[in-house]
Amino acid sequence: MTDRCVGIDLGGTFIKFVATDRQGGASEIFELPTPTDRGPEGLVEQMVRGARTLIDQSTEAGDRVIGVGIGSPGPLDLAAGVVIATPNIGGMTNVPLRDMVSEPLGLPVVLENDANAAAYGEYISGAGKDADDLVVLTLGTGVGGGIVIGGEVLHGAHEIGAELGHIILVPDGAPCGCGQRGCIEQYCSAKFMADRTMARIAAEKPQTALNAIMESKGSIDAKDINDARADGDSFAAEAWDQTARYLALGCVSLTRIFDPDKIVLTGGMAKAGADLIEPVRAHFIDLHWDMTEIKTEVDIATLGSDAGSIGAAGVAWRRFGS
Ligand SMILES: [Zn+2]
Predict the structure, then answer these.
(1) Which residues of the chain have pLDDT under 50?
(2) CATH homologous superfamily for the domain 3-123
(3) How far away, in angstroms, is 167 Cα from ligand 1 center?
(4) 75: cis peptide before it, omega within 30°?
(5) Phi-psi domain of 221 (left: phi exceeds 0; alpha: psi -120 through 50; beta: other)
(6) For labeling, which of 67, 125, 220, 227 is most exposed (least CB within 10 Å)?
(7) In the CATH hierarchy, which top-level class contains the domain 130-302?
(8) d(CA 184, ligand 1 centre) in Å
(9) What pLDDT, on a 0 to 100 scale, did the predictor assign at position 36?
(10) Ligand 1 center–CA 151 separation, angstroms
């Protein structure tokens, strides 16, 4: 009999499910649509349905499920297992999600922040699987992240640690939705690279292939900038490289604090792969101190959007596996 833990990644559009064994070996990941209009009960029903599918499969195979991990957007009260609020799912205010899922399944459940769960997924079976200490930066519409030190997800004293998108990178810089100024999120996310580039196009009227894209689509995105850069557009290359440099600055500061084995980039912008990681590495080497040899590696994540569910199962293993 093999023990398994179920991981659930709660997203704004889909809920992903996986079962993993102690070594991190994962079942096929499947997803169900997130019911956004049926309140917490509808959401819990869907999560329980998906988890039951995996529990039944395990039972049929002669295995058993020993616990469940849920990665949820937040803010969360981790100790109480409560979702305080979610930006993209309606009706989720002060919902005791952990207990609501645990009760019908008759299994212990642990709640984790979704970005932390994704970081833990990379730690146990992704780009960080050989690392003891790992930092993951998620570059999407915003910037998030997670930190795993010696196998433990870092939460901080008040459960708001590892909010990597809101490290201040530029003193008195661009205002951020969080209320600070100059946050990483304002300089390194795909959205802000695109917004900043569009603002520069409007103000400076540069010679760039992006003008034609602006005219036909009405906007540009990070991929347009990278495509133009790859075609030899110097304005686009500068915009792309500036973002890479800001990212590298963030990575140097993270290295000074945590001295991790690896810093892994994930999220939509990381799909650029070598186009992103090569300039980030070059700037990282350039900006890093020279008092010791550079030992922290900067790399691209390998699990993509599967990291959240695999990591949620891993968090359950960490809690219930002994
Ligand atoms: Zn911020």
Answers:
(1) none
(2) ATPase, nucleotide binding domain (3.30.420.40)
(3) 7
(4) yes
(5) beta
(6) 227
(7) alpha beta
(8) 7
(9) 85
(10) 27
